[in-house]
User: What shape does this take?
Amino acid sequence: MAYPKPWQSYETQLGQLITRGMQVTDNERALDYLERIGYYRLSGYWLAFRERSGQLVMLDENGKKPKKLKVETLALDQFKAGATFQNAVDLYVFDKQLRLLVMDALERIEIALRVDVSHTLGKQGTFAYLKPELFHDDFSRKLDQNCGVSQHHEWLSKHAQLISRSKEEFVRHNKAKYGLPLAIWVACEVWDFGTLSTLFNGMRETEQDTISSQYGISNGRVFATWLRSLNYLRNVCAHHSRLWNRNIVDQPRLPAAAELPWVAPFETNSHARARCYLLLCMTRHLLQVVNPRSTWPPRMKSHLLAFPDLTHLGLNLAGMGAQAGWDTQW
Assistant: This one.
């Protein structure tokens, strides 16, 4: 369909918000935020302020009832009573600081995992990442029916791109002095979190378990899902996307509560497993192994306790998946 929404001036955008029931006490300041942050980005935060329809069953593209009925509600244009422009800005600032804290922790975790993976595989050979026999068969030998290559082939292609694009002095030095390929403990320094998590997912169970057990998780396949979810978290933060109430698509598997007691509240709560608070708890757990003296957990707790007061809109930390008494665990 043709795109129906026209370009609007900042003044028109603000007027539309006011018409729909949003309270604006300082028009000049609100216009400044619209100019610097943008209506569309801020709309992701005030979406939660909008009134909702009653329960609906959406028709399919032919205007008929779908075979599988799905009851849902729709966000209406009108805002809830008491919603203010400043509420949206406060939530936006909270989310921005949340992402910065997450990136701070994930950087340390990523670097530690590079060492874990390169040291464990490096014991099998200097260029272990090139050898399909050092990975499980689904990763190294099973061919994709659409493209005819294995996941290992695809990983090597991504790895080669990272090496060829790198401007790092250590890459130039090793290429000049020793040629290619690079030793795994050198090559790992150009991997991003996605490249790292994909390679871990392809490792044999023995090596996976060796690494995951260092983090108090006996099953390396469970740990592989943690890395995929944390890579998703990293990408959300790196692209400055809304995090606080985002639905986590790539949800991690949880070890038994007997192994990690703090997972117990998440086992029977599907909403909490689909929100970012679980990933924050996972990050805290890994960081306590990587850097037990880190001040990150109390800093994150302090930030969560500073969640803006939006009780008049029915919003609180539950939207992130935090449950009653969460602060006693930090």
In short: The chain has a mean pLDDT of 95. The first helix runs from residue 10 to 19. Residues 10-58+67-83 form one domain. The chain has two domains: 10-58+67-83, 92-329.
